[in-house]
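[job 4471] stage=fold_predict status=RUNNING
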Amino acid sequence: MNGIANSISLGIGSRIHTERTMRDWSLAELAARSGVSKAMLSTIERGMTSPTATLLVRIAAAFGMTLSTLIARAELQGGGVLREADQPVWRDPATGYVRRHLSPTSDMPLELIKVHLPAGAKVSLPAASYAFIKQQIWLVSGRLEFTEGDVVHRLESGDCLALGAPSDCTFHALEADVDYLVALVRG
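[job 4471] inference complete, writing structure tokens
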């Protein structure tokens, strides 16, 4: 891992350890609640690996939070302005999916996330990742095939989709890179 990726992995691993410790959970308990092995959780907590989006979603859901909240707690400092240079950026090593957290830390239930998905890449997230949030996706560029449960949405640049009830979802960048904005509301 390069220095930046290692720093982010350490921050995420440390936050997972903190969340687990605050709940007085053992690694075995978090493993049972998240479906992620104890060995993998230990490696993540020590910052020895950069976990995939799928693993982080499972861990966040076990804590009763969104992926955004978990990463924000790991990376963000307080303040009303979050400068571009300070916005946490996380890259999924398995797909090349790049997630930039745009929102400064606040008590507002709204979070803005910018996502870049390389051409041909697919990211699947379980319904549990949407259990605590409502969200809309605004496609900035490219063509996105978004599968929500049994429904397939084909989005073009400029389209905005409000997600329905929590269900398993798959994001698929068709023939070119895709950039989209996710607006999510907690609670």
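[job 4471] summary: The longest helix spans residues 3-22.
[job 4471] exit 0
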